[in-house]
Amino acid sequence: MSEKVTYGQAWKGGDKPFAASYGKLMMWFFLITDALTFSAFLGSYGFYRFKYPDIWPVPEEVFTHFPFLHGDHPLLFVALMTFILIMSSVTMVLAVNYGHKMEKKKVILWLSLTIVGGFMFLGSQAWEWGHFIHGDKGAIDTKTESIVHIAEGEKMSSVYNLMEVDGHDGSHHHFTINNVINKLETKPNFNIRTANKSYLSNSESIKFLQEEGTEVVLGANLKHNEYGVQNFGQCFFFITGFHGFHVFSGVIILIVILINVIKGTYERRGHYEMVEKVGLYWHFVDLVWVFVFTFFYLV
Amino acid sequence: MANTTTNSNWWIWKVFWILLIVTTVEVVLGIIKPGFLINTQFLGTKLLNHIFIVLTIVKAAYIVLSFMHLGHERKSLKWTILIPPLILIPYLLFILLTEGGYALSLMH
Fold this sequence. Notes:
The structure holds two protein chains of two kinds.
Chain A: H1 22-51, H2 59-62, H3 76-100, H4 104-134, E1 139-142, E2 147-152, E3 155-156, H5 159-163, H6 177-186, E4 190-193, H7 202-212, E5 213-217, H8 230-263, H9 265-269, H10 273-298
Antiparallel strand pairs in A: 1-2, 1-5, 2-3, 2-4
Helix pairs in contact in A: 1-8, 1-10, 3-4, 3-10, 4-8, 6-7, 8-10
Chain B: H1 4-7, H2 10-32, H3 35-39, E1 41-42, E2 45-46, H4 47-67, H5 75-107
Antiparallel strand pairs in B: 1-2
């Protein structure tokens, strides 16, 4: 009566319809659901961009930094991050390929390089987050919740320039609206750039801040950010954060698999399919980054 | 390509170069922003953005079909995996972007 059905006996059919193992199928099904999650994130980002087309921050004014270089280098750093992730995808596919050939030493080599690439990407992302959170221009929040910036004539400047302090000296700055208004009164060459990128005169700026200004925003957090619409910062933290979390778990899984490869687990098992399954996950992380790169930094 | 996948590595480097070149084109276009691509509007956004989206889909296709090996899986598996996202994601995006435009119209 209670005949025990053990693994492998339940399937009494002929060929496997998909010619793929259970583990690989389940990884694919997981990736489909994950793809839908990321679509929801990027879709809601698109929703906000379509809702605030005129006052949405311009990405190349936000992401302009490159380590050890001064000045504006829009896109370069994310291009480097993209390159790192594509490169680690290549080393992953090489590891999978040598797994098919049962060449343990080469699997170890390429798997290790993939892990190095993963850590490099995570480091880059930490650096990127650091700069995003710190900010470098500062801005002023208003009653209508649109963010306005400090300009010199028709050129973007910063709160730090206006207040004559170094924004990167490591100390924690705090300014009030009245500090800014007083400085604007003594320095007529400074003025306000409104959220839809038009420039006010110095006297208009002072009047605008007295009526509308609520607080000076330096850097970014989940409540508000100096770059523009609140949702921009929230989308940045959630989308790149969720992707970064995927990279992080990917690196952890890769390390576990690497240990198993070194111990010879898959050699004894007779196949390296586990490397292939993790490979699917790792390529998926690369795939998501391709879309994040386009929709967050390019478009 | 089917038989070369397990025997050699050249196809991996081929895909690598394609991904690298497409990314480079994207970054260069993103930095110089050619005027006629920015000023031409098409289907509600700049022509340049359409180019970015097409190039992104090219990259995505190479990653999924080649690196993730889906191009070489059995046809039934391939379409089981591809059809749900290919229907649901454009559907979701259509709804969200339309609603975004509507939310904008409500603010004015």
